[in-house]
UniProtKB/TrEMBL annotation:
Gene3D superfamilies from the UniProt entry: Winged helix-like DNA-binding domain superfamily/Winged helix DNA-binding domain (1.10.10.10)
Pfam families: HTH_34
Identification of the protein by name: Winged helix-turn-helix domain-containing protein
Organism listed in the record: Nocardiopsis sediminis
Domain Winged helix DNA-binding: 16-94
InterPro entries on file: WH-like_DNA-bd_sf (IPR036388), WH_DNA-bd_dom (IPR027395), WH_DNA-bd_sf (IPR036390)
Amino acid sequence: MSHPRSRLDGVIHAPVRLSIVAALAAVDSAEFRFVRDTVEITDSALSKQVSTLEEAGYVHVRKSFAGRRPRTHLSLTPEGRAAFDRHVRALRDIASGATLPGPAPPEGGEDRG
């Protein structure tokens, strides 16, 4: 299949997971709470989606303590960054009409002649 949609990553493509990966792509590492608030989802929803991303090898989860308080840090693995980059390139190709045959339609839409 040569259409760019064949390059979309099924794990990343789900809207919440795409949002999580995009947030993590912008940083080296982020606390769970930061990602939760950025993506605007609940703790349980984030935990479930992070588990899926971790199983795919895209996210690394690190637990630590700040005093007696547990902290969870999330980061993209090299594989996760590469998968995100491929996914975004495929989305850009789809959005730009990169696979359309022939010349692009004229600016301004249809010919209303």
